[in-house]
Write a structure and sequence with these properties.
alpha+beta; Uridine Diphospho-n-acetylenolpyruvylglucosamine Reductase, domain 3; Alpha-Beta Plaits; 4 domains; seven-stranded antiparallel beta sheet; six-stranded antiparallel beta sheet; globular
Amino acid sequence: MSNDLKRFHGFVVERLGTDAVRDDAGTTGNYSTDDSFAARCEPALVVWPRSAAEVQAVVLGAVECGVPLVPVSSIGGNRQHGDTVPSMPGSAIVDLSKMNRILRIDRRNRVAVVEPGVTFSQLISGVEGEGMKVLQPLLPRAGKSALTSALEREPTLIPRHHWDASDPLLCTEVVFGTGDVFRTGTAAGPGSLEEQRAVGMAQKNPMGPAQFSLFQTIQGAQGAFGIVTWASLKCELAPSCSKAVFAGADSLDGLTGLAYELLKSRTGDELFLMNRASLEALSLGGGLGPLHAEKGWVLAVVLAGHGRFAEDKVRYLEGDLQDFAKMHGVTTHEVIDGLDAAGLLASMHSTRERPWRYGRRGGCQTVFFITTLDRAQGFAGMAEKLVSEVAPRLELGAYVQPLVQGCNCHMEFQLHYDPGSPGESGAARDAFSALSERLLEGGAFFSRPYGSWAQGMFGRMSPECAETLRKVKQIFDPGCIMKPGALGIGGGTR
């Protein structure tokens, strides 16, 4: 261990205690890799802060000693994008999983305030008691940090409640790479959170302070500027009555018209589209049992109602759906390819110990980006052609999640493979690299550029944009201790 690391170790022990830091190989090895193809790199030590004050102390110590920090929030394995693996030796993992308090659940304002260690299973259970539901991704991993998911802009299931690309993230408290603590949105002040709540403030407006909406700089930055110690997340009221319905077609284009109709009229809550391989993975990984999909693509939509006339609303929404489906030559089903819509609905807002994408073959690599629904079929054809040429043994899954009222959509391609087979693992690696490059060349927008995607995205930027990003890094993390290498900027201090 270098002298700088020894100094940092002593600094942390002095301020956080001996039980808050470990450097044994059995511990550090757990953070040296993940399920992605990121290069293995073992951190020098792991730190577990329990409060915002301790996070600030860790950051100040890292600045003084020149030790790179990599924040981690989720519990357990199956991390997937390489963003929690250090990019250089001598790094310290800041594991925030012990900061796991739900600070507030506010039904009136439909807000939950959580620390970074709060998992989806914990948050879902917490808000259910208040008659609310979390705006969450599809069947998230039980140990996944809800705050991190919002920070990383993971796609949520209900387009009509997705008003802005930043949703469901609202206000935050962040410790920047300088060691300064800052609160964004209406949480910026005046007063402490407790004083704000006493006068009816709810930390719901993310804009500000003043004309400076700093939360947009923090979101999607992969921890490159600072560490968020709590955030308020938008929730919605749980429906009194709901019903899931499927529609199937041989191609994605066969469902696009119906999807646009539903999105335009805001008919339904949860809405997504999948091809055969993804639907089978969802059924198996979600504990819904095996199925034999025949349709090339399936659209799933949930019709929901609230209050005294909830059932009446679901009935008239179903009538509207049937009219829209007939207009576009599509037939609706309550059971499709052996998958029961009611069963999917019952499990949709639960969690799983492992990612549902692993359900098909045991392993899955995903390539995801933002596009518009009318371009999705073109990308699907591009991906099918490339995978059939590069790795014909692999199964290609596809999942399309409309976002922001249907203005755009998250599209992902899933390379399903057996991780125990060296041949299939190698083919998945080759296909992942080739598909990523082909999609970048084809105009896919990688809004969450992990690993090699960062170089591809920012390499296509104008020099002015890249220079601006480096300047922002210098403002909030001049010592370059926060996630060096993230977003393709900052090489670190060691």
